[in-house]
Amino acid sequence: MAMRHLFINFSLYFRLPVILLLIVVMASCNKHDVAPGNTKPEKIMPDIRTGPATFHTLGGVVETFNVNFEKLGNVPIDEYGIAYVFQVEATLTEPVADGANPVAKFKSAAKQGPITETFKIGFPVGTHAFAYRAYVKIKGGDVLYAENSFKITY
User: Fold this and answer.
1) pLDDT tier at 91 (50, 70, 90 boundaries)?
2) Helices (H) and strands (E) in the chain, counts
3) Is the dihedral of CA 123, 126, 129, 134 positive or negative?
4) Which of 35-44, 62-71, 125-134 comes out lowest in average pLDDT?
5) Helical H runs in the chain?
6) Same domain for 19 and 77?
7) Does residue 34 sit in the same domain as residue 61?
8) Which residues are CB-contacts of 101 (< 8 A; sequence separation ≥ 6)?
């Protein structure tokens, strides 16, 4: 009987702290609401690929460029297209959208999947290499480039 009385007293001493601890834990685990204007969604950047260009059958003219949006992301797109460069000889230089290289800006709205537009760009005299790659300018001025590019010697 003494052992049972000791167990009951012992458990009474631990019940109160355990109950208080559970109340504190439950109160601290409440999901705190954030005001709707204070949340910023994670930025998901567009993912673009360079598609093959179409050349005039007689040569010397780029007829169309092709880009493919693998995903649009959730940041506003200001501009997209193809940055290209004609060179005397093929080098490892990649064309850039912000610089001396010309760009073929696409007029249609960006959408997921392949997009093709016509441009009719003639090859300058004295050049023998052509390099191009897709780009996207996002709101704020950052420029993203496709991982793939094309280099053609003619």
Assistant:
1) confident
2) 1, 8
3) negative
4) 35-44
5) 2-28
6) no
7) no
8) 83, 84, 85, 95
User: Under DSSP, is residue 54 helix (H, G, I), strand (E, B) or coil?
Assistant: strand
Rounded Cα gap, residues 133 and 150, in angstroms: 6
pLDDT in the model for residue 59: 74
For residue 104, what pLDDT is reported? 95
- Tally Cβ neighbours within 10 Å of residue 129: 17
Do 92 and 134 have their domain in common? yes
Flag whether pLDDT at 82 surpasses 80: yes
73 and 131 share a domain?
yes
- Strands 77-87, 129-138: pairing kind: antiparallel
- Match 């949006």 to its residue by tokens: 69
Helix (H, G, I), strand (E, B) or coil at 19: helix
Number of domains comprising the chain:
2
d(CA 66, CA 81): 9
Question: What secondary structure does DSSP assign to 65-76, as a single string?
Answer: EEEEEEE--SSP
45 to each of 24, 39, 51, 91, 113, how far by Cα in Å? 42, 18, 19, 29, 15
Are 65 and 91 in the same domain? yes
Residue 83 is predicted with a pLDDT of 95
Q: pLDDT per residue over 59-75, tens digit each?
A: 778 899 999 999 998 99
